[in-house]
Amino acid sequence: xxxxxxxxxxxxxxxxxxxxxxxxxxxxxxxxxxxxxxxxxxxxxxxxxxxxxxxxxxxxxxxxxxxxxxxxxxxxxxxxxxxxxxxxxxxxxxxxxxxxxxxxxxxxxxxxxxxxxxxxxxxxxxxxxxxxxxxxxxxxxxxxxxxxxxxxxxxxxxxxxxxxxxxxxxxxxxxxxxxxxxxxxxxxxxxxxxxxxxxxxxxxxxxxxxxxxxxxxxxxxxxxxxxxxxxxxxxxxxxxx
Length: 241
Hints:
Layout: H1 3-28, E1 43-44, H2 56-62, H3 76-87, E2 89-91, E3 96-97, E4 108-114, E5 125-130, E6 135-141, H4 145-151, H5 156-160, E7 163-169, H6 172-178, H7 182-203, E8 207-208, H8 216-222, E9 230-238
Antiparallel strand pairs: 1-6, 2-3, 4-5, 4-7, 5-6, 7-9, 8-9
Helix pairs in contact: 2-7, 3-7, 6-7
């Protein structure tokens, strides 16, 4: 091969290598879409409303921490809307959700603890929310609200809520990509999700308050969380008194 031909070939090789590196970088930064195995017995939730009658400005203005609730049960449609607001899928093509997530790692897992007469047409118990199919999976039957309140330092609003939304996280999903800094990203994401719950509750004329004071191990045992899932938030919800 003559030098003139070599001089033309080398830049082409460099361009191809650079293109290959860009492609690899692009694919490694895409959000991680996680397949969830279907389990028989999942309960389909009503489809969420994506065009409501309350503006975001009005919801922000109404948003507040409400701790006193009536004994009026929620509807399944209201539960559906709250769970969708927390972690619902908004970009089915790649799994994007209602709350932003660092690198699309989506470390959060959402559960609800339903009281007796907590939700119309839904038996009391502990349920896991499956965002990929917008369904509920029964974890444990029976009203565990009092047990959750004990784990949450006997806070009355946990005991009197119609449901308690519990946000847990698998930190490794995010720290695998971002190292130790990923820990703060997970906490940020939990805050994003809970603010969504606040705003959706305001739009539905419901009350909620974020709870961070609880015994982690007791909550983890009560919800039968896998070892890698750590509880971060409890959000009692009910009709304001």
